[in-house]
Amino acid sequence: MYVKVKIWTSFLLIILVAGTLCACGSTAPEVPLPSETPSVTADRVEVVYFHRAQRCNSCIYAETGTRYALSTYFEDELASDKIIFRLVNLEDKENATIVEQYGAFTSSLFINTIIDGSDHIQEVKEIWFILGNDKAFIEIVKGKVEESLKEIPDGFK
Q: What is the Cα–Cα distance from 43 to 156, expressed in whole angstroms?
C-alpha cells in the first residue's frame, strides 16, 4: 500500500512540475523586427517561429535567441527584406493557413528559402537540444540562415 501511495505521489509531483514549466505564460510584449511580412515577392529567406498562447521558458528562450541571432548577424538582410522574421501563434485561427503550410503543431522554428516563388521549408529541430547554451543556439540559427541565404541570388556573400 505504501509503495502505491509513494508512486502516485511521485507521479503527481512530476506532472505538477512539468505542467508548471511548460504552461508558464508570458506577458512580455512582442517586439517586431524591422519586417515581419514580405513587402515583395522576391527571393528571400523567411524565418518563422511558431508558438502557443501559453508559453514556457523554453519557448520564450527559443524566440529570444532567434531574434538575437537575426538582429545581430543579419541586420542588413532584415532591412532589405532578404530575411523576413515571422512570429506566429499556432492557436490563432487567422494563422491556420500558414500553420498548415509549414506543418507546425507545437512550438517550432522553420526556415523557408523562397526561390522563384517556390517554398523550401526546413524545420530547425536542433535548437531544442541546446536550450540554455546561448553560443551553440545562436550558431545553429546563424548557420542555417547563412545556408539559406547562399541559395538565393545575391543572398549572402
A: 12
Buried-state track 111-136, b at ≥16 Cβ within 10 A, e below 16: bbbbbeeeeeeeebeebeeeeeeeee
Gyration radius of the chain over CA positions: 18
Identify the burial level of 59 via C-beta atoms within 10 angstroms of its C-beta, where 0-12 means exposed, 13-18 middle and 19 or more buried: buried
> Which tens digits make up the pLDDT trace of 54-78?
999 999 999 999 999 999 999 999 9
Class of domain 2-151: alpha beta
Which 3-state string (H, E, C) describes 58-85? HHHHHHHHHHHHHHHHCHHHHHCCCEEE
Query: Rounded to whole angstroms, what are the CA distances from 146 to 13, 83, 149?
Result: 43, 10, 5
| Contact (Cβ atoms closer than 8 angstroms) between residue 152 and residue 44 | yes
C-alpha cell at 31: 517586439
Three-class secondary structure of residue 153 per DSSP: coil
Cβ-contact 37, 46 below 8 angstroms: no
Q: How large is the average pLDDT for residues 91-96?
A: 96
For residue 29 the three cell numbers come to 510584449
